[in-house]
TrEMBL record:
<dbReference type="GO" id="GO:0009055">
    <property type="term" value="F:electron transfer activity"/>
</dbReference>
<dbReference type="InterPro" id="IPR036010">
    <property type="entry name" value="2Fe-2S_ferredoxin-like_sf"/>
</dbReference>
<dbReference type="GO" id="GO:0046872">
    <property type="term" value="F:metal ion binding"/>
</dbReference>
<dbReference type="GO" id="GO:0140647">
    <property type="term" value="P:P450-containing electron transport chain"/>
</dbReference>
<feature type="domain" description="2Fe-2S ferredoxin-type">
    <location>
        <begin position="9"/>
        <end position="91"/>
    </location>
</feature>
<dbReference type="InterPro" id="IPR012675">
    <property type="entry name" value="Beta-grasp_dom_sf"/>
</dbReference>
<protein>
    <submittedName>
        <fullName>2Fe-2S iron-sulfur cluster binding domain-containing protein</fullName>
    </submittedName>
</protein>
<keyword id="KW-0411">Iron-sulfur</keyword>
<keyword id="KW-0408">Iron</keyword>
<dbReference type="Pfam" id="PF00111">
    <property type="entry name" value="Fer2"/>
</dbReference>
<dbReference type="InterPro" id="IPR001055">
    <property type="entry name" value="Adrenodoxin-like"/>
</dbReference>
<keyword id="KW-0001">2Fe-2S</keyword>
<comment type="similarity">
    <text>Belongs to the adrenodoxin/putidaredoxin family.</text>
</comment>
<keyword id="KW-0479">Metal-binding</keyword>
<dbReference type="GO" id="GO:0051537">
    <property type="term" value="F:2 iron, 2 sulfur cluster binding"/>
</dbReference>
<dbReference type="InterPro" id="IPR001041">
    <property type="entry name" value="2Fe-2S_ferredoxin-type"/>
</dbReference>
Amino acid sequence: MATITFIQPDGTARACVNFEGMTLMQLAVGNLVDGIDALCGGMMQCATCHCWIDEAWIDRTGPASPDERAMIEGLSGVEVRPTSRLSCQVQLGEELDGLIVHLPPDQPGI
Ligand code: FES
């Protein structure tokens, strides 16, 4: 079990509990967290699941892969940071208990 805290675009925090190894995107969508549309359903084809991993946690989630990074950087109007990830590419596990994720206000498709 892992508790993940999403900081939504309006600054409010939502704590969600992951029980069965979902992706970060699936956890957010399943809990109706504001700021993640995930239009492609996790196929890494839309980038509407972009998020910023909290700086204190990026070593544990790891950075975006080269393909993932290219997808994020290909978006217009999105603030790309070193901690940018596509949440559908972050697999949740016990080791990420306490993870904090920030959701950008300028998400594409929202
Ligand atoms: S849900 Fe489309 S890229 Fe992640």
